[in-house]
Write a structure and sequence with these properties.
This protein is an all-alpha fold and 78 residues long. It contains 5 helices and no strands.
């Protein structure tokens, strides 16, 4: 099954999640423990989103890693 978000990058998903939850980029950066400039660079592709960034990002966004990587929620628990 495909959905409209299959070709979304992680950065695009982060933007979409922030928009849907009306979250400010600077507050997500702070909650994830990133400097706002570093987080902006991650979203713009100028800085890599590294594996160690995933858990803090998920917590700050209030989503699971499944959602961040484009899988249906709880897809990996089957």
């Amino acid at each position: 099954m495909t959905n409209a978000n299959d070709n979304e990058t992680v950065q695009e998903r982060i933007y979409r999640i922030m928009r849907s939850k009306k979250m400010q980029q600077s507050l997500v950066a702070k909650d994830a423990g990133f400097a706002p400039k570093d987080f902006n660079n991650m979203l713009k592709g100028r800085k890599l989103i590294r594996p160690e960034h995933i858990v803090p990002l998920c917590k700050a966004l209030g989503v699971s890693a499944d959602v961040l990587f484009g899988f249906p929620p709880n897809a990996t628990q089957k």
